[in-house]
Amino acid sequence: MKLHTSSTDGLNLFTAYGDDYVAVNHQKHENNLIVCPESIIADWSTARVDALTEADRQKLLELGIGIILLGTGKRLRFPAVEWMRPFAAAGIGLEIMDLQAACRTYNILAGEGRKVAAALLFD
Question: Phi first, then psi: what are they for 92, rounded to 5°?
């Protein structure tokens, strides 16, 4: 039994990923980026997870998104607590996971029509 219909037409979705790339709607990306259902911000940051800056954080806070999935590369690594704290204060869910898990989770949430962004860091 199908309870609802789902349409992902026109959304940015991950169609492939590996250790050093992702493909969004079949377009390959190899640098840090932010993917939202309706937009892509290429070259979001040049930092690794342990060197994220206030400017990197501010860009995410300004998206107007309710859930941000931070993909930290090949393995799960957490940014400094001080860097993460403003998201909770702003009422924004920040989930930290490896890059591939962030891609899979993003596709599910975007397909459900959720306001989600995947901020991906390649290491």
Answer: -110, 125
